[in-house]
User: What shape does this take?
Amino acid sequence: MRSKKSFPVEQPPLAWDVPGLMAGVDEAGRGPLAGPVVAAAVILDELHPIHGLADSKKLSERRREKLFDEIRAKALCFSIAQASVEEIDSLNILQATLLAMKRAVEGLRLKPHKILVDGNRLPKLDILAEAIVQGDAKVKAISAASILAKVHRDRLCATMHQEFPLYGFDQHKGYGTKQHLDALIAHGATPLHRRSFAPVSRVLG
Assistant: This one.
């Protein structure tokens, strides 16, 4: 019987070191000038396959949204975590990304036997782990994690746009487009901007 994503107060104890369970891990938002970096960890259910999983960047927004709901419904468990703008500025973007990944893995209700991480760097964990370059295109669990992280972060950007509508966060998602850079010059940096990133620091003088 598949585990659910939410539990009553009297939830059963956590299952640790379940043999054979493998989690995929990926992130979204390393490059933008604003907003948190988001990571997700997913353990898929082989008995309930999800068709069409791929690198989130290769999918349309509509397709990502549909798969986001399907992953949440069918996965054995998943976790989405983030590292804040303040953590990005104090640690640097790489360390903040690894921190978000670590939080995502630690947030899983089931502890996997192994994790597979997209890229070439691994967060510090007490679990067997492997980094896979272009893993989001090669491993279904990593593809699922990339979709969860991407959609979750895009939704955060929609909220950021509501708070600061002059910057166009709903369109460029925080990346350094001309529209974004022009808004930075015209209106200055918001509390959501990563002050350690050069385009932002230049605006701040």
User: Anything to note?
Assistant: Residues 1-18 have pLDDT under 50 and may be disordered.
